[in-house]
Amino acid sequence: MIALIVCHFVLAACAGPLVRRLGRRAFVVLALPPAAATVWAATEWDTVAAGQTVDRSWEWIPAYGVFVDLRLDALAELMVLLAAGVGMLVLLYCASYFTDDTPQLGACAGNLLAFAGAMLALVLADDLITLYVFWELTTVFSYLLIGHGSEHKQNRRSALQALTVTTLGGLAMLVGFLILGQAAGTYRISAIVADPPETTLAVSVAVVLVLCGALSKSAIWPFSLWLPNAMAAPTPVSAYLHAAAMVKAGVYLVARLAPAFADVPVWRPVVLVLGAATMLLGGWRALRLNDLKLVLAYGTVSQLGFLTVLAGAGNWDAALATAVMILGHALFKAALFLVIGIVDRATGTRDLRRLSGVGRSLPYVCTVAVLAAASMAALPPLLGFAAKEAAFYALLHGDASDRWVLAATVVGSVLTVAYTLRFVWGAFCRKPGVADTPARRVGAAFLAPPALLAVAGLVLGPGVGWTDRLFGAYADAFPAPAHPYHLALWHGFGTVMLLSALTWAGGAVLFAGRTAVTRISRRIAWPTADSVFGHLLLGLERLALQITGFVQRGSLSVYLATTLLVMLAGQLAVLFTDRPWEGAVAPRLWDAPLQGALAVLTCAAALFCLTVSRRMKAVVLAGLTGYGAALLFVVQGAPDLALTQFCVETVSMIVFVLVLRRMPVHFQESVSTWRRAVRIPVALGAAATLGVVVWVSGAARVAEPAGAAMVEEVAHHGLKDVVATILVDLRAWDTMGESAVLAAAAIGVTSLIYLHRRSEAPLTRGELRGRTAWSLNAPPRLTGLPQGDDTAPERSWLAAGSTLAPEHRSVVFEVVARLLFHPILVLSLYLLFCAESLPGGGFVGGLVAGLGFITRYLAGGRFELAEAAPLQPGLFTGLGLFLSTGVGLFGLAEGTVLHAWTYHGHLPVFGDFHLGTPVIFDFGVYLLVLGVVLDIVRALGAKVDRQIERAAGALTPVPGTGTEGRGV
Question: What is the pTM of this model?
Fold first, then answer.
């Protein structure tokens, strides 16, 4: 089973090259996996018909107990035969339907085969989570298939609509699955069906959520709007997704869970009422449409409602009728969709008002269509008749609610007969006043797939008894009645036969009065679900714009105040409700007086920020608060945190200074007295509340602190630094995620500065024909002082020192930068590799290395930065992410992500050593942080420098363009 599923996806990945090489004939090759699945399912027929199952389980992540469980039973056997068998025929049909020059043919072929694989896995899944994964894969692939031909707005809109409706239903279903799994103590579907959890409020809610997913997938009202619009997809896609596969997934799920939850009070009202309403609404709408494909689409909606009613009825006879009806519907509906594709290709239209005499031009196509349509109208001796008889019998011999539903299904069947006659008449019959439609010849290979499906419906009518054992094996999941129904073509004259005759007569009458029926239908028509959906989206968009306009005022202070007020209100409500301070240990002001002194100084720096009007002073004071927090970490005995805080604060202040070069010296926003009077209490109240929350959270601890256990665990592995070990080993998942977020944030911020492109033009000194940005930003020269080379150093201490204006060079800074650069880099590597036993780590090491490059930039400008770091920052960022992720995935060799290894060796001079994968992981963090720092400095420093020089005309034009260089 697993191999068959994998083959679908592997060959789907090769669809593009196959189509480029073989053209449309590649569909024949792509039909091999579904053909193999069909043959395999056929060989297992006797096994599952005898009530046995075929089980397979793959240990995906054994350490966490994650398995992929597959199971083939009677219901899965039916669905596999349909998904694989019809899928094989549709792929063969595609070889004739499409042309070699069809746009995006390779993508369509791959998505269609991948959908078949996902559907195969869905019906075989014996685990709720596994089923959900493949359920959503069918949603994704259907979105891609419906959106084929994305150059058309209708295709894009229809694909997005289908994705929206089915995904929302799928998310609701996932929540239901989680509740059911927790209530049952297992996620194995077979175990849940065999021993369902006790009916509680939680289980009832879960059942409703699961039904939301199933009904949205099968286009049951009120979720039925997406299926008719999905007819924008190519006809083979419609034949497969909307007749035999995707829309059957919801019916399959209802049928799968009905043995366990049909007795839950909310089950039958939801399933029976919505199913019956869908059957009636879909059938009525099909009577007034003129597009053959839309007629079948609404007919499919109607039939899906019928199938949902049978699948959810929850008794033995209804289960038997469900199985045979699923088979019959797939055969005749897929055949009719394929026939529509042939008619469309042969005549160039699907409008039944323009089609006339096609039956004479295409007699074989007409014969196939009549056979399939007769099965849809439940005429003997076809399979549709036997299925409809079984359905009427099951509902007739049910309880009172079943008989009410029977009345609705009889009316729905009358509508089915009427739109079936309208379909055949509109597609193939001659119409008064309409000239015969010219039609091209249809090849045998083109007609063969629908012909096989139609003939199967004809053969299985008299031979429906062959399926009785298999479908009965599924029905045995329900209590058997005293006189169970058995599948046969003829059960004699009786009430069921009378109801069938009534549907034929009623359908014929409706068709005969089709003009009046169409007029009445259009006169009393409600707004279509599609228009309602469109107005809902439009209203949602307008509401979002109004809320955005109200909330997004462009003021950072307003945003911050709103956030603090929401936090303040929530925390105060909880504090005053629960009163967690009662019985809590009283807080200590400090462990040592030095802590109090540092706290007072830090708070004073923060309060002074309120009084300054110059941006630079505000940055310095804000930086002092960060340094004060770092000193508190030092006093508390947390050197790792202190070192990280010092480095982050230093880099942050430098970045602020670089940004402030392009901003006014003073704050432009005027703050009135009353606003300041409001802001200060909000800030102080938020700080006080947060302090109380931290205190009561610490005082509420009842378990022993984990610190001692972590120290012991770390020492057991020969390590000493608990913090670094937590970051790169025990909680490496968090570090990996935070690293990815850091990289994404840095790339996003710097990309806002690169308006044109991020690629860097060569930073050659020859492009500079005037003064550098730092000289341009310097104060005017003072008269009476030495100029030019009189004050320049005798030698250049920097690689790009010659680009600096001599009167603005600092020999002390250049010497210090030259002497400290390499020691800083060595220090960063030391901090990286000593993290197992001493404070340090990849994050701190990367920041320290970045500070070394920042020093070079501050001393020599952008050309010095280019000499010191000639490689692109993105290379460091990408390589860091690659190393960290690669180390994490390498752990899968032992069954779990981020599994750690340690290599012990001996070197002649250095002695014994060990190298662990956490160190490599930390080295990836080191490179990533270094790349982020370089990217920020290059964007906010070198890029801004170049903008200043360009504005001053200090750059040479780019050859051949007449414009100045635009790279950084």
Answer: 0.69
